[in-house]
Design brief:
- It is a single chain.
- The chain has 67 residues and is mainly alpha-helical.
- Helices cover 63% and strands 9% of the residues.
- A two-stranded parallel sheet has the order 1-2.
- The relative contact order is 0.20.
- The model has no long low-confidence stretch (mean pLDDT 88).
Length: 67
């Protein structure tokens, strides 16, 4: 598990927003409501919860500096 600052990746940022799976999911409306990650994939939901609490983004630091 990672602790500390997350390394930003421009390639992954663009890929996440332009994936075909995302377009299909949004067009068909096949999304689960917020907070339903525990029902759809509990293992991934647990990992994501721990990951977000133990790491932070460079963008959040910059936002706090320039706020």
């Amino acid at each position: 598990m990672k602790f500390g600052i997350r390394t930003p990746s421009l390639k992954k940022m663009i890929a996440a927003r332009t994936s075909t799976a995302r377009f299909v999911r949004h067009k068909l409306g096949v999304k689960a409501p917020r907070g339903w990650g525990w029902l759809t994939n509990p293992k991934r939901a647990a990992y994501n919860r721990v990951y977000t609490r133990t790491t932070f983004s460079i963008w959040s630091i910059l936002a706090k500096l320039f706020k």
